[in-house]
Write a structure and sequence with these properties.
The complex is a heterodimer of chains A (250) and B (267).
Chain A: H1 3-24, H2 36-48, H3 50-83, H4 85-96, H5 107-114, H6 119-142, H7 146-154, H8 159-196, H9 202-211, H10 215-249
Chain B: H1 12-20, H2 22-45, H3 53-65, H4 69-100, H5 102-117, H6 124-131, H7 135-159, H8 163-171, H9 176-212, H10 219-228, H11 232-264
Classes of the chains: A mainly alpha (250), B mainly alpha (267).
Chain lengths: 250, 267
């Protein structure tokens, strides 16, 4: 591990130890924050209950559905806008300020449209993620060096060959960046939806534990969720680095 | 990274034409297209599910004229502006410090990225426990959403400043603050504005979500109340208001962003 990595680890360990001490010695009220060791116990306890595992699974399924839909639709929208520069120019301001709009405000609309089930949450996760995929796909496609396309034309590649051997490999890193954001955003969208108005899922379980003053359960669930989401994001992040390193080395 | 110089397919004539009346026409086309889609969707799904644009705007006018509204709007505006100021100032300061010191930047970056990507909504109960039910919890929640992009953008901008600038500062024996205000911030300005833009959007998001959960006042609370009583017309009217305000602010910041980036190019 690098020096920065060790320092980071020491910093996190130090912060946790400080929090532990502050809670144990009563500098922070137990009603507000519980010691990290108790949080981990709470996480273990939560993981052993069938109900929590069900909530976690439900949330993961919803996120996965939103993610897959946003990847497919985002790639399609990106490719379409790349083919139609006029349309792209018209939509440009929309894409640029899309994330300024709090998508959650449309949640009630989706409840009316889809009913009180998991689909409104899928829709929120999808809406939150799809534009990041579209923007990055578009970026990747328009950054393919002209020389590649000319070379492909000289070699008389058929359109499917061109797509498979030139366009996809060249645009892949950008698409991957979009996918990385899509994972994070679909998690954020789905869990925020569960938190505010929903009857199931991890987000709801956390809100429920908060409302019933069950701090051990609440912090346990938060720790659990952060471990899952943080783990997925870290893996994606290191893959992305390798992908770009390979691109730069070529 | 390979970037082709002729990525923009627009010809010179097209570019000139676009500068004259292109953007305005494009914007009008976009607005017209969205309105047509909205109206069509409303006809397809029924007025109850998706109220049409005209009814929404009329309802919005009624809400704006309502005697309750100013108090709610003031609550949201106060929370948002306070959160924004805190997020921008502290983000700028932290970003400058992390950017100036290579090692601390390396230590902090993965932590910041991880913090950015986790669903921060789950931290809201913790914030409520720490700050209590009230405006300070909303502000804190807005800040933790908005501050991270400002830090990351500022940090990267400072890192990319050419080292000759710093050497010039040392030659002129500028103090730390002088260096920050006369060299680092102007040189990093375009990126800082990009960070402000993202930070603005996320602070608004954080403040609104904060109001949607465990709050008795503000536009977020009005939204949740309308949601619970199945009042789609009010929801759409408030959503419309927020979309228009957020888009207007974002467009203004984007224009500033692009102008600064263009100006920074020739150097």
């Amino acid at each position: 591990m690098t020096r920065a990595g060790w320092i980071r680890l020491a910093l996190i360990a130090g912060a946790l130890a400080l929090l532990e001490a502050a809670c144990r010695f009563g500098f922070i009220s137990r009603d507000a924050v519980i010691p990290p060791t108790v949080m981990v116990q709470g996480a273990w306890h939560a993981l052993r209950s069938d109900e929590t595992r069900g909530d976690l699974l439900l949330t993961l399924q919803t996120v996965a559905l939103a993610l897959v839909l946003s990847l497919v639709a985002g790639a399609a929208i990106g490719a379409l806008l790349h083919q139609a520069p006029r349309l792209r120019r018209v939509l440009d301001p929309l894409l640029a300020s899309y994330y300024a709009v709090p998508t959650f405000v449309f949640y009630p609309l989706f409840i009316v449209l889809f009913g009180l089930n998991r689909w409104p949450l899928v829709a929120i996760g999808f809406l939150f993620a799809v534009v990041a995929v579209a923007i990055n796909t578009l970026d990747g496609l328009s950054r393919i060096p002209r020389a590649y396309l000319r070379t492909a034309a000289v070699m008389r590649l058929s359109p499917p060959q061109m797509l498979l051997h030139v366009i996809l490999p060249a645009a892949a890193p950008w698409f991957f960046t979009g996918a990385k954001f899509a994972v994070a955003y679909s998690f954020i969208g789905v869990i925020a939806g569960e938190f505010v108005v929903s009857g199931a899922g991890v987000g709801h379980a956390i809100a429920f534990a908060y409302n019933s003053f069950d701090n051990r359960m609440m912090y346990g669930l938060i720790v659990l969720l952060f471990v899952v989401v943080g783990g997925i994001n870290t893996v994606l992040w290191s893959w992305e680095r390798r992908l770009y390193a390979r691109l730069a080395g070529r | 990274m390979p970037v082709s110089p002729d990525a923009d397919p627009a010809t010179a004539a097209e570019r000139i034409e676009r500068r004259d009346h292109g953007p305005l026409v494009d914007t009008l086309l976009l607005i017209a297209g969205l309105l047509v889609l909205w109206q069509a969707g409303s006809m397809l799904l029924g007025h109850e599910a998706l109220p049409p644009p005209a009814a929404t705007v009329m309802k919005l006018a009624a809400i704006l004229g309502d005697s309750d509204f100013p108090a709610h709007a003031w609550e949201t505006a106060r929370a948002f502006v306070t959160a924004l100021v805190i997020a921008l100032c502290s983000g700028l300061a932290i970003g400058l410090a992390l950017g100036a010191n290579r090692l601390s930047g390396e230590v902090a970056e993965p932590l910041l990225v991880a913090l950015y990507a986790i669903p921060k909504i789950t931290l809201y109960p913790v914030i409520l426990l720490l700050f209590g039910l009230g405006i300070s919890a909303k502000i804190a929640f807005g800040v933790i959403h908005g501050v991270i992009p400002v830090i990351v953008f500022t940090m990267n901008a400072v890192r990319n400043i050419r080292s000759v600038y710093f050497r010039a500062a040392r030659t002129m024996r500028l103090s730390l603050l002088q260096t920050a205000f006369t060299i680092v911030i102007p040189a990093a300005m375009p990126e800082i504005i990009s960070g402000f833009r993202v930070g603005f959007a996320l602070t608004l998001l954080g403040t609104l979500i904060g109001e949607m959960f465990a709050s008795q006042r503000g536009i977020g609370y009005m939204l949740v109340r309308a949601m619970e009583t199945n009042d789609t017309l009010t929801v759409m009217a408030l959503a419309f208001l927020l979309v228009v305000l957020a888009t207007a602010a974002s467009t203004a910041l984007l224009a500033l962003d692009r102008r600064l980036h263009k100006r920074a190019m020739p150097s």
